[in-house]
Amino acid sequence: MCFMSMLIRVCAATAGAVMVKTAMTMFNRTSDAFARFLDGDIWYSFCRSPGAIVSAVVAILMILASIFAPVLASQNPFDLGQVDLMDANVPPVWMVDGDPRFLLGTDDQGRDILSTILYGSRISLFVGFASVAVSLLIGVGLGLLSGYVGGRTDAIIMRIADVQLSFPAILIALLIDGIIRNILPKESHGELALYVIIFAISISGWVQYARTVRSSVMSEKVKEYVQAGQVIGLGGVTIVIRHILPNVLGPVFVIGTIHLALAIIIEATLSFLGVGLPPTTPSLGTLIRIGNEYLFSGEWWITIFPGVALILLALSVNLLGDWLRDALNPKLR
Amino acid sequence: MTLLKIENLSVEFPGRRGVFVAAHDVDLTLAKGEILGIVGESGAGKSTIGNAVIGLLEPPGRVASGRVFLDGERIDNLDHGAMRRIRGRRIGMIFQDPLTSLNPVETIENQLVETISLHLDLTAEEAARRAVDLLDQVGIPDAAIRIKQYPHQFSGGMRQRVVIALALCAEPELIIADEPTTALDVSVQAQILDLMKDLCKKRDVGMILITHDMGVIAETTDRVAVMYRGRVVEIGDTEQILGAPNHDYTKSLISAVPRPDIRVDRFPLVTYIEDVQERAPDFNIKDHWLGRAREYGTDTGILLRLKNMKMRFLTKRALLAKNRIFTDAVMDVSFDINQGEVFGLVGESGSGKSTIARMITGIYKPTGGQVEFSGVDLTALKTRREVNPWRRQMQMVFQDPFSSLNGRMRVLDIVAEPIRFHKLAGSENECRDIVLDLLDVVGLGRGAAEKFPHEFSGGQRQRISIARALATRPRFLVCDEPTSALDVSIQAQILNLLKDLQEELGLTMLFISHDLPVIRQMCDRVGVMKSGKLCEIAPTETLFTKPGHDYTRHLLSLMPRLGHMKV
Questions:
Q1: What is the model's pTM?
Q2: How much of chain B, in percent, has pLDDT values that exceed 70?
Q3: For chain A, N or C: smaller number of CB within 10 Å?
Q4: B407 contacts in A (CB within 8 Å)?
Q5: Domain range for B350
Q6: Which alpha helices (DSSP H) does B281-410 contain, by range?
């Protein structure tokens, strides 16, 4: 357990250092790059696609709302000092018995639903982004390796990918989640649940990245600019990182966006099934599960509102991904 | 008698950054049985004219003004249905690429019969008979048998014959042929052109032949229209245009065609096309960083020696060794290149020229044989650390200017990469200065450094590619078809540049091309390749005047000639 959290910290620190360094080197070109972006086809296509604009606005609003949850929420639903059992099961404000303090009502323990949604989507989004980042690192890395080296390495990586693809992603995530829970000592479950679920979702999602990157690499590596690099004398790693990687990233962003929505849904599903995050750090999925028990006793708002939030989040991110795919590949239109 | 009349035709493509006018007030007429050539370079609007006539402009293109008459009847304002009945029935089309203009999952018979019965009122049997008849006419042997076959069973030339038969199905009055022979080898090209010429005369069909190739124009057309940036700058009899052109552009276009008969020092009059930045007059390349290639010594004699080079590619993978299938791309090729010499390799596609270039520069690892560079056997060196100092002395210019530059990097970084990698400059500032000078030397100007490759045309990109190759201060330069993707006048500019650089820097060069006239202009000695083997090596003059090998004679006989050109 100690080892795990240390490992995570070390990884985060390294990643942070790398990012700072890249940011530094990129700094003098950032404003220029931004100007080119505003002039580029992607931004042009974005400005002419109402669906993309609406989804982007919704997604950004939800992300901002979750980041600033401590400021926006009327209470911290997980601070027991702020919760009063007397306020349990208050319906939304527009219904009879509604209380203006609780816009979307409260749950059985008197927690404000709107606040729980804000805090819950915070966790959902964190799990989503973190899983996408880890998946992307694993997938892009293996894809580059597989595509550039080829031969036996490629065969082994791709057969593993094929095997994994023959199971549904949710099943893989469940499996990994279950295995890790069995290995880890019971008392650390609550503390590490968040990282376990991120790991499980990441492992279930890397295949898409690896396959896409592999096929792009295979078509890029025979191009003459790669051969020009070989003639200069560059080594394989330099060619892959400096020349091939930037040219295969387009589709990766598309998959990343769509995968973000998927990761949020998988997390919600796992939490709904009770194998995900514990009620002490509830995500949207956990909230839906808790509310589900009250659905038939009339307190529908406990489950419906977190559900709507989940749908809005997943849908807007998904639509954004669809638009990005079309924008990057004009031939599909 | 006028068959087709185009009046004041303008075609425009509205886009993000304003309206692009692809054709500007074009006036053309075509008589029955006449072949009118439209010649010009890429982007001149040749194909746009053809597409506008048959109403197949790619969206968002549209006819902005003008009228088109077919046999006195106006056709540019017809609706889709009416236009469809004209297309195929009265106007036949022949496209550039025979590999993609036939449906691969239908037999030739089905495709022909479908088109015939669509346009002509014939029974299935009559249509089938007519299909065989057509194939016979376009010179396909055993037409009755071959008609049952699929497109992939035909060679490129045969497929183009099928496409011509398809265009003739409904006995059209007009045929529009858009670069019909560009995708074919020269030997096939001649046959196809003869066939098309013959059919036009025999059937009294008018033809518009769109091409960038002056040789094709000279051999096939009666009259020719020269297009430049969307306008017809000159139109007249082919003899007159080729022999005594009036317009400056036509003159420069004709003078840019490499002459097969004599070697000229430079191509004249090619500045009309694309502005080239002249380098500063006080710039002396010999004193410059670039000129310090002399550090290698000035020994004469053999610089590169290839001994029994072999290369086989695995074409079918299998677990068991006996089931694997190989192709021998290069079989036992040996030759020497002397210091300061330009050695040419010529041959048709697939003859192994490029494979040899890639084995020399280390992109492919040869299956057998030795590459001796400056007396050192490079194939015996195992690690990159050992090979790199030698690799630095040889660089390569590639064929495709669009894929040979990494589109995500600035020109500065592209050209600086070899300098940085081999640590040839003391500081980043010095490196930057060298790159800027290099861009000057290749005629791009210093402003190019901050731009990205997509902001440049094909010829300019090829200049960037040359600058990158020069950035290691090489003494040996491999040019693999450096101009075959370029327009003829751009080609002339690039060839001029390569010649200048070769002289100024004393470079040794391996120049690979399928184009004999280009080889003649560039090379001192030439090797002729055929299916992986070297047929003949001879000094250029000898090769062109007294070829020793049958295959060389065959290649020379196919060389397009502009005989009566006077500039």
A1: 0.79
A2: 93
A3: C
A4: 247
A5: 341-558
A6: 353-360, 384-391
